[in-house]
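Quick one, T. Sequence first:
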Amino acid sequence: MTTRSSISRLRCTASVLVLSTAATFAAAVQPVAAQTAVYGGGSTLVSLAMRQAMDCYNAQTVTSDGYSFSTGFNAATPTPGLLPATPDGANCSQLGALGTVGLYAAVGSGAGQRAFITNDPKQLLRGSAPSLSLPAVPPVFLESSVPALATYPYARVDFGAGDSPLPSSPTNTPSVTALTNFSSVSNWQNQTTITASNASSATAYNAAAFGPAIQLPMIEAPVAIVVNTNATPTATWTINSAGTAGAPGSAIQLSTAQLCAIFSGEVRDWSSTAAIAALDNAGQARVQTFMDDNTGNGGAAQAYVSNSLPIQIAFRSDGSGTSFILTNFLANSCPQLDDTAGSHNYAKIFTGVGVTFASTVVTLNDQVTGTTTTTTIAAKTNASAANLPSTTFANLIANIKAVKGVDVSTGAGGWLAGNGTGEVADTVNSNAQDANGNYLGGRIGYVSNDFAKPYNPAASAPLSASVQNDDQRARGVYHPGHLGESFVAPTPASADNAFRSVAVPTGTTYTAWNLYNQQYAAGATLADGVTVVPADGKVSGVNVVGKSQLGLPIIAGAYPVTGTTFAYLYSCYNTASAPTRVADITNFLNWFYSSQDAASVLQNNGFNALNSAFVTAISSSYLASGSGTAIAASSTQVDGCSTVAAGAGAQ
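Structure tokens:
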């Protein structure tokens, strides 16, 4: 891929002026020690890409982060670990050394929301009280060469990041349960575990002090379904649906029917020949066997393995936007597969509607750390309330237990927990043996696309699967190879196809920018003009009215397990201790949304940049001074600060 100059694509005139001036003079007048910082944290899905984007923006890597500028960069290949640098000068360093270091803490989407809503950098920790831990590494979250940027916690929260939307309450004010009464030392970066009391409190976002909350999509993000298909001495794989080695989605091809059977706990062994629920191209319930999708490449359907091999799901134990994206897909796709009698209980399992249960204990068997703990899911007493999609994957386990009477988190073949995307990836690709001598192949999980091959070059990185989408089901592509088609691989292009099902919001409230809330309505036409929802609300026999358009993209080539990472931003920032704070934030965001370099970095990680219609709306509403809703400094009393005196970060 040929990269172009970043500055030419910046859309905000005021920001361009500030940015261009800094680009011209920064190298000469800003020594390293004088660098300012933009502090963010949350989503592990976007964490590696954020580290690289921040490096690219400042034309300088932070110490020991493992990335390098190279003329060999080619996002279309991809080339993991490299950043744009080309002989014609169209590279990240053309911006000049701006003197603005971006620091990002990978702590999970739940913690990103927690830190943002409380405006408290001490909340940027993984886990929950009383056991908390520092951000995941990679990415590097400190700049060790600059004393002011080499300690944790951060000085402030400039933005949070998460793959799930901010919570919406009846008063339209998000709230979270914040950690309180910390017992810790000042040098957190030297601690492997940070302790806190069990005390916590519900904290609401302080709109009076910070201005309205802002929630902006940052990327188009496919979540990879990763599968360990390595043979073991006890089970030999035969995968007729495998793709081209080294390509995204090459490990195996899985239908929606198979994923629903796996994630409901209905099928728990790769040798299964059991009948599972599916749909035909008219939306009528049909039955297939689990092995029916093991086709393609000229091979007839057969069991995947010669002997029993448990399907162990590796799931996120922490509050995870990646879990939200996966369960959004399951909640919108699986219930429609069930027959009219609801024989498989998919609606109950994947939405929680119709389910009640007492408080439920879920086992968290974390084989990366070698620990086994538990988490308690509070009693669900309202049968009509949904508990999925959710950032808490354990809700799904609780639903299965309530409906089937089976605890999939324990016993032989029990599902496995991972704190952060990295642990899930490591768990899936482990070929070690457990304490009983059982091989650990056959695992399946879900990770950010950049943690899977080929976007992650590490030998330990798992391989991803291709997944059937609903457009293929509607055209009768039931199995790999039908009509000469393969299922859809997780790629930047297939994520972009999924995003064609959503429109640019017209409002400016944070709830208006919850893209997952865009739902099909009878008679509606999708954004790409391809699929029209008839007056009866049925598409190929399936009633899609009220379903999330992003959770069920009915578009050719759309990867169905797609979402976004949101940037959670304040309307009003206090700049008393950091006079350039607003300029630092808005300059970075203008560059991130508008530059080809940033788009190339995202593509190199398996993501896709937002299309220009989104970028125009974001820039004009939030990044251009004078819009009335733009991010501003409290000292100015304009735009987002017109009615706010304090601003975020005043403490």
